[in-house]
Specification:
The protein is mainly alpha-helical. It is built from five helices and two strands. It has a two-stranded antiparallel sheet.
Length: 92
């Protein structure tokens, strides 16, 4: 029902409307591939923001860092929904 509107909006951004599915799958893949860290993650305050003490975590893409902030339980929930949506899109 919303697909034509989504494709139109995607096209208005300057992209080919037909490429929307591939972009969506890539985005879902980035969510699914985000690391899940158990336990406490150390951060330090740098001016008005917090940075991860672990340089490997600090260099992660912004999306992955946002998922880390959600905690492992919520990250897994989001990843499960992303995986379900990905599978549904590929099954069409």
């Amino acid at each position: 029902r919303f697909r034509p509107l989504l494709e139109e909006a995607y096209g208005l951004l300057g992209y080919e409307a037909e490429a929307m599915d591939n972009a969506l799958i890539r985005g879902l893949d980035r969510i699914i591939d985000a690391p899940v860290v158990e336990g406490r993650i150390e951060v330090r305050k740098v001016e008005a923001v917090y940075k991860y003490e672990d340089p490997n975590l600090e260099q992660l893409p912004k999306l992955h860092k946002q998922l880390l902030r959600m905690g492992p339980t919520n990250t897994r929930r989001v990843q499960a929904q992303a995986e379900a949506l990905r599978q549904a899109l590929l099954a069409r």
